[in-house]
Design goal:
Length: 66
Amino acid sequence: MSEVPSKMSFVELGEADLPAYCPNPSMPIWSSHPRVFLDMASNGEAKCPYCGTVYRVKPGTSLRGH
């Protein structure tokens, strides 16, 4: 899972990062909330209902079976 520079407001995911969930492994433990799996199938993007973090799939990433 690669974090993007702070000027961007989303986390970009590749095939190895799917299925998408939040909190992601790079988030500090103090900011944790219950794990929630995110549905990215409709448009390749999802927003965490707890913390508002936006996740997007990298261009060219296959969403088969996720």
